[in-house]
Amino acid sequence: TDTASESSYSLGRIKKSPSSLTNLSSSSGMASLSSVSGSLMSIYSADFGNVDVKGNIQFAIDYVEQLNELHIFICQCKDLAVADVKRQRSDPYVKTYLLPEKYKLGKRKTSVKKKTFNPVYNEILRYKIEKGLLKDQSLNISVWHNDTFGRNSFLGEVELDLGTWDWNDKANKQINWFPLKPRVEITFRRDLQGLSRCFVLFFTGKKTLSSGEVHIWVKECHDLPLLRGNRLNSFIKCTVLPDTSRKSRQKTRTVTKTTNPVFNHTMVYDGFRPEDLKEACIELTVWDHNKLANHFLGGLRIGLGTGKSYGTTVDWMDSTSDETALWEKMMTSPNTWVEDTLPLRML
Predict the structure, then answer these.
(1) Hey, CA dihedral for 83, 314, 34, 99, is it positive or negative?
(2) Superfamily assignment of 200-332 in CATH?
(3) Is the pTM of this model over 0.90?
(4) Of 250, 255, 199, 246, which is closest to residue 6 (Cα–Cα)?
(5) What band does 150 get if pLDDT is binned at 50, 70 and 90?
(6) Low-confidence winner among 59-68, 143-152, 239-248, 310-319 (lowest mean pLDDT)
(7) Which ranges of the sequence are coiled-coil (predicted)?
(8) Which numeric CATH code is attached to 40-179?
C-alpha cells in the first residue's frame, strides 16, 4: 500500500566530520535508490555557478516562411571563460530552447569544439513551428563546456523575447554579436502551490538514548506545472544533505496523469543525534517522469538555513523562513508529528 508504513535499519554510526551524515541509514516502504536520469534541468548534471561568465556570441535568427521553420544561425563565440581550470581549457558547444515550454519542442545543439575559447560553428539550428506561435515564445541560447564525465559547465547565455521581435526588419536578420550573461534565478510563470497540503516531519529517540530517526511523510502536491501537453507523471526524491551518496536517496512511487498527486509516502532516516539536526538539511525535489529524461519541477530544502554545515560554508543550507520554521518546530517537538504546506522553488 501507499500508506505511511516504514522500516529502518542501521548502516553505521555517524562520524564527527563535515560529511558527518554520510553514514545515515535510510529506508521506506516504497523507496528506491535509483538516481534520476537525463540532463534536462537536472541539478545533478550541470554546473551553473562555478564559472565566471565572460565573452560574446555571434548569431542571427530568421523565420523561413516556405518551411514554417525558425532558423538560428550560430556563427561563433569569442573570449569564453575557462571551464576546466586544471587543464586551462574549454570544450564549448551551444544549446537553444524555446521558452516557456522548453521541453515541448526540445533543445537543439551545435557540435562541440575542443580546446578553444573562440569556437567557430557556422551551424543552423532549426525549429518546426508556426510563426504565429512565436509571439508567446522567448529564445534562449546558452553556451556550455562539454565535460567528459557528464557534468557540463555553464558559460553564459542570451535570451530574446520573440513576442516583440520585428521579423520584417532586415537588421534583425543580420549576424550580430551579443554579450553572454550569467544565469539568473529561474522562476515559474505560474504560482506553485507547494509540497504539500500536509507535509510532515517526525523525530523520535526510540532507537537509543543518543540517536533517533527523522520520519518524512510526503502527502501530496498541488498545482504542479505542465511541461509537456496535458500529462504529468510526478514523483518526489529525498536526500539528506550533506550526504549525496546513493544510500541517502529515497523516492516515492510515480503518480500518473495529474497535477495534484497524492503520495502518502513515508521516508525514514536513522542515526540522527540531536546535534546533527542543526547541521543537516532535507532536500525534497519534485520531478516529472519521462522515458527519455526526468524534468525538474521544483523543490524544498528544509533545515536551519545557516549557510554552514559542520563549520563548512555550503550553498545548499539556504532554507527559506517557512522551511526553517518547520525544521525548528520539528526539533523542539520530539515524538510528535509537525506539518505545513510549503511552496516549491527552484534550487
Answers:
(1) negative
(2) C2 domain (2.60.40.150)
(3) no
(4) 250
(5) low
(6) 143-152
(7) none
(8) 2.60.40.150
